[in-house]
Specification:
- The protein has helices at residues 3-8, 40-45, 55-65, 91-103, 111-125, 152-160, 173-180, and strands at residues 10-15, 18-24, 47-49, 83-90, 139-141, 148-150, 165-171.
- It is α+β, with helices and mostly antiparallel strands.
- It has one domain (26-180).
- The strands form two sheets. It has a five-stranded mixed sheet, sandwiched between helices.
- Strand 5 and strand 6 form a beta hairpin.
- It is globular and about 45 Å long.
Length: 181
């Protein structure tokens, strides 16, 4: 195999129960993804730029950065080259990560029972949310050790109706805010 063929060869990345194509095998993931330790391995397979996102995935980001009078100045075109990672992960995998996040600091011998009970209790506290079956908006990941910046209600809506996957989105926030300034 020559160098050109090697560069064009795609690698398959398993994201939860879904196998998706990724960047060429020789590409190294950007350092900005280190801000997302919980799902970093899956996010590397879905790394792209803002321009490549479907409209439904762009909306939470645009809503997050648009405030009052500044909302007219914010355009998707000005954010096209901002790095993002958009993947759909298996619901079980996301729920386990959330259970671990919520039960961190709980001193109990039986954390598995507490984790699932916590999800059920929290799901009951969120008002029912009507989310589409197609073009589902992603849960917006929070950089650092937290899970979601925006999207808790969406996660519980997807989880409650037993969706097989949860759409999640990570954004290179420093680059995004640099473009806005």
């Amino acid at each position: 195999m020559n160098l050109r063929e090697l560069q064009q060869q795609k690698r398959a990345v398993s994201v939860g129960a879904i196998v998706k194509e990724s960047r060429p095998g020789g590409c190294v993931s950007s350092s900005w993804l280190a801000c997302y330790p919980t799902f970093q391995d899956a996010l590397q397979g879905g790394e792209t730029n803002f321009r490549a996102l479907p409209h439904c995935a762009k909306l939470p980001v645009l809503k997050r950065i648009a405030t009052g009078a500044d909302s007219s100045a914010v355009t998707a075109a000005s954010l096209n080259e901002v790095r993002v990672a958009y993947v759909e992960l298996g619901t079980t995998r996301v729920a386990e990560a959330i259970e671990g996040y919520l039960s961190a600091g709980t001193n109990s011998e039986n954390l598995e029972d507490i984790g699932s009970a916590v999800l059920e209790v929290l799901a009951a506290q969120f008002p029912p949310m009507c989310v589409p079956l197609v073009a589902r908006q992603p849960c917006l990941l929070s950089p650092g050790n937290a899970i979601f910046l925006i999207g808790w209600a969406r996660f519980f809506a997807y989880w409650s109706r037993n969706d097989k996957t949860i759409p999640i989105l990570a954004v290179d926030w420093p680059a995004l805010y640099l473009r806005l300034s």
